[in-house]
Write a structure and sequence with these properties.
By secondary structure, the chain is of the alpha/beta class. It has a domain of 206 residues: NAD(P)-binding Rossmann-like Domain (Rossmann fold, 3-Layer(aba) Sandwich). 42% of the residues lie in helices and 14% in strands. The protein contains 10 helices and 12 strands. The strands form 4 sheets. The chain has a 6-stranded parallel β-sheet, with helices on both faces. A two-stranded parallel ribbon has the order 6-9. Helix 1 packs across helix 7. Bound molecules: NADP nicotinamide-adenine-dinucleotide phosphate. The site of NADP nicotinamide-adenine-dinucleotide phosphate has 23 residues, from helix 1, helix 4 and strand 6.
């Protein structure tokens, strides 16, 4: 991308989109186009077609999506499928129709089969059944990345996709019942510290293993791939390192300065025992994450403290 290239970041108010905007600006890209959800509903085909016909962005980062935890995914599968499919198809199709040089589609590691061998490689996509709890979301994401691949094959476009592991960092969602595990722990330990609670109870036995990538590292990879990668196969975005939920809870409590007891409610589910991405492809391209978990949690907590509205999202 030339420094004056016209770049549209879809979903720039979200955690990933805002990190991509920060990274682009830091690298000297200033010709950015952005629209809030209110200004442009990406599910509305006519609005999207008009926007692309008028603006004709040369590059597109597609980071807009309807995102949620297990409970929301289970309760609203039809909404997760329709909103994500509609906005992906509208944006990707209009980008192609209007001569976009390159588009990068953001997916999620939940596209991989429930029983995929660990660590999960890109080519295990569609080799067996998906996890039932977020099947609708995963099917929409798989359709998005496949549509990019089909446009490349049929029309010679240069549309790519990236599949991140669990993300965290500035602009995260700290909603008490609808957030992912790490922001939920940050909020719980913060509140327990302020209210001097003697203990905090976490779900499961803490043995499940998970991977976490700081969102600014993901944004760095997104810009890197836009400049250095072309291909139909997606690229995994992670650290390649895993941590148990117990270690994660202890680390988060330490960063926040909560000194009470951490209890485990073993009547609650652990989830999949292990979920780790194989990041060999991204590292083979010359990319590596830079922010380790403890430093990342510290940065995320600072953002949480300085932006009290975060907790209300
Ligand atoms: N968060 C994670 O841990 C994680 C992990 C792996 C992959 N990802 C992927 O990263 C991408 C971005 O996720 P995120 O965490 O940044 O989510 P986010 O913070 O919820 O941001 C998504 C953005 O998309 C916007 N949006 C949703 N529907 C829209 C529509 N119809 N028209 C216009 N804008 C719309 C949202 O606006 P409103 O809020 O106004 O609706 C929001 O600003 C997603 O594709 C997700 O799958 C995230």
């Amino acid at each position: 991308m030339k420094k004056d290239a016209k770049i549209y970041v879809a979903g720039h108010c979200g955690m990933v989109g805002s990190a991509i905007v920060r990274k682009l600006r830091k690298q000297g890209y200033e010709n950015l186009i952005m629209r809030t959800h209110q200004e442009l509903d990406l599910c509305r085909q006519e609005q999207v077609e008009q926007f692309f016909a008028e603006e004709k962005p040369e590059y597109v980062f597609l980071a807009a999506a309807k995102v949620g935890g297990i409970a929301a995914n289970q309760e609203y599968p039809a909404d997760f499928m329709w909103i994500n499919l509609a906005l992906e198809m509208n944006v990707i199709h209009s980008a192609w129709k209007n001569g976009c040089k390159k588009l990068e589609f953001l997916g999620s590691s939940c596209i991989y089969p429930r029983m995929a061998p660990q660590p999960m490689k890109e080519h295990c996509l569609l080799t067996s059944e998906l996890e039932a709890t977020n099947e609708a979301y995963a099917l929409a994401k798989i359709s998005g990345l496949k549509y990019c691949e089909y446009l490349n094959r049929q029309y010679g476009t240069d549309f790519i996709s990236v599949m991140p592991t669990n993300l965290y960092g500035p602009n995260d969602n700290y909603h008490p019942s609808n957030s992912h595990v790490l922001p939920a722990l940050i909020r719980r330990f913060h509140e327990a510290k302020i209210q001097r609670q003697p203990y905090v109870t976490c779900w499961g036995d803490g043995s499940a293993l998970r991977e976490f990538l700081y969102v600014d590292d993901l944004a760095d990879l997104c810009v890197f791939l836009m400049n250095h990668y072309s291909g139909n196969e997606t690229v995994n975005a992670g650290t390649g390192k895993e941590v148990s939920i117990k270690e994660l809870a202890e680390l988060t409590a330490k960063v926040i300065g909560y000194h009470g007891e951490i209890r485990w409610d073993v009547s609650k589910p652990n989830g999949t025992p292990r979920k780790l991405l194989d990041v060999g492809k991204a590292s083979g391209l010359g990319w590596k994450h830079t922010i380790e978990l403890e430093d990342g949690i510290r940065l995320a907590y600072e953002d949480f403290l300085h932006n009290p509205m975060r907790a209300e999202r």
